[in-house]
Amino acid sequence: MKHIEASRELKKTHAELQQRVEERTAESVKANDQLSREIEERKRVEQALMESEERYRTLTEHVADGVTLVQNGKFLFVNNAFVSMFGHTNANQILGKRAVDLISSGFDQGIKEIYGKLELGMSGEKIFRAPCITREGREFWVEGRHNIIKWKGMPAILTTVRDITETRLQEIAIQEETERLRNENIRLRSSIKERYRFGDIIGKSQPMQEIYELILKAANSDVNVIIYGESGTGKEMVARAIHDMSNRRDKVFVAVNCGAIPETLLESEFFGYKKGAFTGANMDKHGYLDLAGGGTLFLDEVSELDLNLQVKLLRVIDGRGYTPVGSNKAKYSDFRIIAATNNNLLEQVNKNLMREDFFYRMHVIPVTVPPLRERKEDIPLLIEHFLKLHCDSKERKSLPVNIFEAIDNHNWPGNVRELENVLKRYVTIQRLDFINPRDPKAANEVNDSGKELLQKNAGLRNAVELFEKDYISKVLNQNKWHRGKTAKTLGIPERTLYRKLKQFNLGLS
Questions:
Q1: 92: left (phi over 0), alpha (psi -120 to 50) or beta
Q2: What is the pTM of this model?
């Protein structure tokens, strides 16, 4: 019996083991099937990804804009347009490099911050503009647009890049023009505030206001200017004002007196010469055209230029260069011509003393400086300026009425230069005299009224009263006995003037 039971138990155990084996086998088959399905799925996904990448690459290679994929700050993908844009021949020359290495210095840190914020999921600029550097070192401007995507489970930056160099250069040109106009407006406003003075030029009369306007217009251009005017009117000061207000203000102003250069030296002085070009040429010398490069060449008394030199200057003005004496190599210089003369250049042309084509090259913006006799209202300002300039601080800086009247009545053939010299002489020897070079016998002299008081041996108080009475009387006559105007001219209240009139018995009725 025991043997039979043991046999049954053994069969039961065997059956259970068989069942377990079958169950394990079924589970193993099921697991293998699952693994096979997963492997197939993975293969399918990888194939789909490869096909997707291929489609995306094909798409990106058919767009004009550059396309890049950046992860951890480095390029994972660039299309052919991007490669060509930066002067490379294949993508491998860029892949793996840092994106910021292609940005110009000064902008790279800003782009690095943008990439960093985007990859961390922080807010950042998704559109940027920056100058970039090609493989050859050429700088150009790009505009980029960023998008965050997932690439192999990690954030990456997909960027499209477009060359905007032409547009950016236009914007920069507009900005520069806007800045130029802003500076012009500032100069205009400042000049309007102090129109009695324009740089070193003194005058508030209407003729001078028109000159100031012409100076501003000429300064905002780069064409040639011709300044007409009598000797002593300040033509060179006008030329310097144009230069100082122009875009060439930081460059040199070369003034040339054309009438003071011997005819034999004209060419070498203007164009320079090479060592050994002639006897005494011991070294190379720069001419006026070299020195004026980038700045202004002022040709004073331009009518004195030799006809042959006019021809050669025409070549330079037309951009065909010039050749220094003793050289066979042409040179070029960027300068602006401002010329001046006290002659009628059209008459010079008619007399064959000036070439007609040279005249028209010079006569682009004509400026005619008025003589002093046509702007006598500027004389008080000029007197004040010259007295401050030539008097010591302890000396008086005003003129007695009779001296002022004499100045006002003079015709000033020598213009402002003559006025300055007359005042210098007056300050030095206390005597005012006018000299007419055309008629020396017509010279006249006006004594300082203060010396008349000395001749009368008047005491200090009496001298002061005599001078004060004489001065008030002349100012009254000058203002046609208008007390308000007289008080204003004297700089005293009307009550004080009334008291003085009563004190000196000056026609109160």
A1: alpha
A2: 0.54
